[in-house]
Each structure stands twice: as structure tokens, then as C-alpha cells.
Amino acid sequence: MPAPPAISVILTTCNRRHLLPRAIASVLAQDDAEFELIIVDDCSTDDSRSYLAGLRDPRIRVLATPRNSGVAAARNVGLDAARADVFALLDDDDVYLPNRLSAPLRIFSRHPDVVCTLSSAVKISPKKVQTAVMPDLKLASKALAWALLCDLIGVEGTSITARRAAAASIGGFSTRMKTIEDREFLIRMARLGGGYLIAEPLWQKYWSDSSLSAQRALAGAALVSYAAMQPELARRFRKLGSYLATKILVADLRHGLFAAFLRDWSEFRAAGLIDGNVGSMWSDHREVAIYRRKMKSGDALAALNGPPEQWA
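Given the sequence above, the corresponding C-alpha cells read:
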């Protein structure tokens, strides 16, 4: 039996045949790491299946889910099949840049207490191209968990590289989550060890109207599911929960999603994220917004120990 690769790449897809060649090519172009590419087709109904069946590169394995179950379940299928001790994720509408696999592997070899890495990225939209830069920084477990919960660092699937054993020990990705599943997964991972932010841009993000992140009307339901998995948002860190809820309510109104606003208001109150007092909601929102602006710099993140004492 051949030796396991250094890293397993997990690419999940559904009805994105037109994007798959670009994503796959960006993985196969990585010439500085021994890898396997696991492609999980989540019951595509376009011609993705026939295209994937025609791939002949021995580093590629194609799996299929028995029914359409969403990205979290599809990633778990890939995790179960992965042979390497480290895995990296790839969304089908994104692209790896050079060193995407080797840079995290170097971090893991040097820092045995690190369970996950995230990296800077080039983000491409129809209107502009910009680089979302992260500091070169190691975060201890407690600091990582709080930075993730408070949204001080960006999280997207293609940015994540992690130790497979740690992911398995927490049960993988939550299938209750339709969005924000990446961040919620890493918060649970942070209880097992620290994280490392890589300043080098290692991937490209392509924004499209069909991506889940563009479906604004789903944001409220996603936050309710997130808060169910992270109940501190409605208890110990109520200010933060209220801030996240208020951001969505304001976005609902800004984009004319009035039905979504009424639904989200009701569901946020039922989840304990807001109390319905507009004055206190605004006060909490302002306090958290000021704190987050102050804490997003590299120096502030480097000094981070956890949540502010007055918020607990």
C-alpha cells in the first residue's frame, strides 16, 4: 500500500461543472507538496459527474454523496476518506495560489501545538480586486477561540488547513449549519490548540451572486443556527450576540428585505440574541463595533488573551 500523502485537499462541489476545471487545475499545479485531491460531488444534476469520471490523474479521488446534504456533510465525507494527517479545503469557485499547501505544512512541522492555519487571500469581484491581508501571527488556543467568535479574523473555507485528528475528535463540520459552518468548526477546533495566520496570499476568492455568502436573506437563519451551536452568544457574551444580530437587521432594511427583517427580528428575540430594546441594542452595537475596530490590527491580535472582562 502506498505511503499516505503529506496533505489531503478536500474539494466539495454541486452543480458547478463550469468552475471545476479551474479549481482542480490550481491544485494539480502545486508542485511543492505530496498531496491527494478528494473531490466530493454532492449529488450534482448537471454534467459534473461525467466530467469527474473522465479525470485520470492518479492523485485524484472522486466520491459522491448518496443525497444532496450540503457543504458540511460533503466535507465530512472527504474527511473520512482523507489519508493524510493534514487536510486543506477548497471551495469549487476558488483557486489555489503557489505555496498553498507547502506553507501550512511548514507551520505544522514547526508548531506541534497549532491545529489550524488561515491565510491572506486575493479577492476578486466584478468591481474590484483586493488583497485581504492577515498578519503573520501565532494565536494561543484561548485567543484564537475569542478572535473567531468575535469575528476579528476572516474565515472562509478555502483558507482553512487543519490537522485531521483534531477535526475528527470534534466530530467534523456541523451538518446543522448551512453557512458560517467554517467559523463554527474552527471555534470548536480552537479548544484543542492554537492557530497560525499566514500573511502570504495563498488563494483567490471569486465572488458570485450564486455563492451562499451572497444570499443575504439566509443570514438571519444562519446566525440563529450559529448561536445554537455557540450559546455563549446569547448568554455570557450577549453584547456580541446583539451586535451580530443588529448587523443583519440593518442589512435586511438596507437591501429592502422587509419580510426577512420581520422574520429575523422575531427569531433573534426567541434565540435570546436581542431583547427588543432598540436603545440597548444600539448601545451594545456601538460598544462592540468600537472594540472590534481597535482589536483587528496585528499588534492588538498579538496581545489578545481573550474576551474583555467587562463583557463576561
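Strands lie at 7-13, 35-41, 60-64, 86-91, 95-96, 114-124, 129-132, 137-139, 161-163, 194-206. Try to locate this feature in the C-alpha cell string yourself.
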